[in-house]
Sequence to fold (280 residues):
Amino acid sequence: MPDQDFETFRQSVITSENPSTIIQVVSFDVFDTLLKRSFLNQENTWKAVSQQFYTCRRLAEIFARRLNLKFQSQEVTLSDIYRFMPKRFLSDSEFSFEKKSIRIDSLIDSLIAYLLEKNIEVFLVSDTYYSSRQIYSLLEGVSFDRDKIKIICSSEFGCTKSQKLFSIIKNNFSLNYTNWTHIGDNLEADYQIPNKLGIKCFLYENSINAFLKSKILSKKGINKWIVYRGPQNLYEFIDEFQDFSSNSAVSILDSLSTQLLSPIIKTLVLQIDRSERERN
Fold:
């Protein structure tokens, strides 16, 4: 089990007279670390817009990702996704809605401000379809100078943290893994992957972590699930649990949609759009 004692690390940094003797470079995950959504996950943000938007948006992203794989890209941009969305849905509207649902984590915000004040290099590293420019916009309201940080988005490099994004950052900015600390919420992408490279990592508690510590599932049951299926499967289970409890039909559609061939996905999106237009 990884060292999750983020608070001990934070205290050691802010109480040090010269924190640069402890760390030289610190990177942070963005969503569910520096930025918190009002909803449990991204999919629930889409559901809050409308059920039709949620269905179209999920299918459009699946189609865009499959198409990009043909061009050797593991990631997509918001523009890529919206090529397969009904025309009445606008990417700017989605981004605006997302921005309204975002809040800043004060603990991470203050830590970044302190690190910058002490001239420690700070990166924001995110697996996202947003661009660095859009992430910069989402950071309105932070206490630190946004121009002093480097924002790295998987969408702009065609790969994720679980693939080779950390290696790209190292090479592009001439970093040393042993002098690098990374903080984030995802067990695989923010701990296991960078840890294998020699980066010192700390897990930061988010809504999923809080769910695991709640009484919704017993500790004994959680441990059995982790041993049997693995931590990442448990994350998926939590999302499925919430989807099923809110709308079982949607959960079933999600499962089926991931198995559909691309042409069928595109046709289904258009049919949903046509049906909604007829009702309106």
About this structure: The chain has a mean pLDDT of 79. The first strand starts at residue 25 and ends at 28. The radius of gyration is 20 Å.
